[in-house]
Amino acid sequence: METLKSYVEGNTLVVERSFNAPRALVFEAFSTPAHLEAWWGPAGWKTEVRTFEFEPGGTWHYCMTCVDKEQGDYYGMESWGKSTFLEIDPHRKIVYTDAFSDADGHVNPELPVMTITNEFVDIPNGTLFISRSEFTDAESLQQVVDMGAVEGFASQLDRLDAIVSR
After folding, report:
1. Please, where are the H alpha helices in the chain?
2. What pLDDT, in 10s, does the model give residues 108-156?
3. pLDDT tens digits, residue range 57-69?
4. d(CA 159, CA 166)
5. Which residue in 76, 47, 75 sits closest to 61, CA to CA?
6. CA distance 38 to 105
7. How confident is the model at residue 2, as a pLDDT?
8. What is the DSSP string of 12-38?
9. 3-state helix, strand, coil in the chain (%, to 5)
10. Distance of CA 65 to CAs 60, 72, 77, 106, 115, Å?
């Protein structure tokens, strides 16, 4: 069930992954800070949630820190993110903007901002998770892909799978 599929539709990066877990549980892993801190970020990275207001208009501000010495130059590196929730349909969909930021929550204007739509769909024996990251242009999408976004997100979803599919 753990197959990841990714593809591009126009200016949108689509990632799909199935989980052997109920939809409500997978949704909960995306909607509570304690769960996000347990799996958000690629393998070898630890996430700290600074702000999490899970409601339309609410913000999510977090820091991912590389804690794996085997990752060389990345060890000790911090990556800050800031999101604003736009739409929440419990157990079905979460829509938010996602941006690179600094520790104070100021969005980095040199890096792309994307609108992400995460859908949670019932399938036999589990949940199909579909994430659509929409960019303003093809160059912004390519910039994030070149930064390793697909590989990083795949690693994150592996970490999530280890938790929800126990």
Report:
1. 23-31, 33-39, 138-146, 149-164
2. 999 999 999 999 999 999 999 999 999 999 999 999 999 888 998 999 9
3. 999 999 999 999 9
4. 11
5. 47
6. 22
7. 58
8. EEEEEEEESS-HHHHHHHHH-HHHHHH
9. 30, 45, 30
10. 16, 13, 6, 18, 23
Q: Phi and psi for 157 in degrees, rounded to 5?
A: -65, -30
Q: For 87-97, what is each residue's pLDDT tens digit?
A: 999 999 999 99
108: DSSP letter: -
CA dist., res. 11 & res. 72, Å (int) = 33
Question: Can you say whether the dihedral through the CA atoms of 32, 133, 60, 53 is positive or negative?
Answer: negative
In the sheet where 93-101 sits, what is the strand order?
4-9, 12-19, 126-134, 114-123, 93-101, 78-89, 59-66, 45-52
Task: For residue 38, give both structure tokens.
Answer: 């347990």
Q: Which two tokens stand for residue 40?
A: 């958000």
Is residue 1 scored above 80 in pLDDT?
no
> Are residues 128 and 16 in contact, defined by beta-carbon separation less than 8 angstroms?
yes
pTM of the predicted model as reported, rounded to 2 decimal places: 0.94
The rounded distance, in Å, linking the Cα atoms of 117 and 133 is 7
